Amino acid sequence: MKRVLSKFIITSSLIAGCSVLNFAYAADAAKPDLQKGEQLYLNGNMAKGVLACVTCHGDAGNSTLEANPNLAQQPFEYIVKQLGDFRPKKDDVPATRLAAGGAPAVMASIVANMTSEEMRDVAYYLSQQTLDPTKAATATKMETLERGQKIWRGGLPERGVAACAACHSPNGAGLPGQYPRLSGQFPSYIAEQLRLFRSGDRNNQIMMHDIADRMNDADIDAVADYAAGLR
């Protein structure tokens, strides 16, 4: 009974945190321009050093490279926040999304000269795209399927790890404006992000740091692979 109550409290806290995040970014966002977002995604702005997003993230946000995540159909507010988090808030304050070892993320140089309006435009464009089922990643490790499913659906209550489905939804589609879609995402990318949360190099979501900090490498790899196969 205590474990069930603890799990309920953790899950409720996560959902409440998601709702606060959603409200904050929805309130701040000016009306985005779909056409401008598409142009920036396809062509970039080389005069400002902004590389065309399609180069790394593929047609309509459907990446073919495991190092670069699928962005199609991701929540608008979520993408806006992540783009901003790659950039330092102040000259003496590092970005909250860094690469392993505290190095600047690859995205840092791309977003450095983007305006908030451009970030919103390209985020809106991506949020309106559809994840291509023929290009989406899937689960490949049958030997860890059961472990991954257990963590996704029920978490690890003995270690205070809430079920991933609480925020990312049972089918991995995420919660619009709150938490990202993980279904069809590359397992290696999901696992990398969980390790960055655990190390603190990705420091833009305290709840995810706390969750990842209680997971070992086997847990991370299992749930990352399982999440990729959800539809």
Please tell me about this protein's structure.
The protein is an all-alpha fold. It folds into 2 domains: 2-22 and 136-228, Cytochrome c-like domain (Cytochrome Bc1 Complex, Chain D, domain 2, Orthogonal Bundle), CATH 1.10.760; 28-127, Cytochrome c-like domain (Cytochrome Bc1 Complex, Chain D, domain 2, Orthogonal Bundle), CATH 1.10.760.10. Helix content is 50%, strand content 0%. Helix 2 crosses helix 6 (116-127) and helix 9 crosses helix 10 (206-212). It is globular.
What's this, in brief?
The chain is mainly alpha-helical and 231 residues long.
Unreliable spans are 1-13, 15-27
- Supply the number of structural domains: 2
What's the Cα radius of gyration?
Answer: 17 Å
Percent helix, as a range, is 40-55%
Shape: globular
Beta-sheet strand percentage? under 5%
Q: What's the CATH topology label of the largest domain?
A: Cytochrome Bc1 Complex, Chain D, domain 2
Oligomer: single chain
Please give the largest β-sheet: none
Superfamily at the CATH H level of the largest domain?
Cytochrome c-like domain
In round numbers, the mean pLDDT is 90
Assigned CATH architecture of the largest domain: Orthogonal Bundle
The N- and C-terminal alpha carbons lie at a distance of 32 Å
- Work out the helix count: 11
Main CATH class of the largest domain: Mainly Alpha
- Helical/strand content category: mainly alpha
Total number of strands: 0
What is the string of helix and strand elements? HHHHHHHHHHH
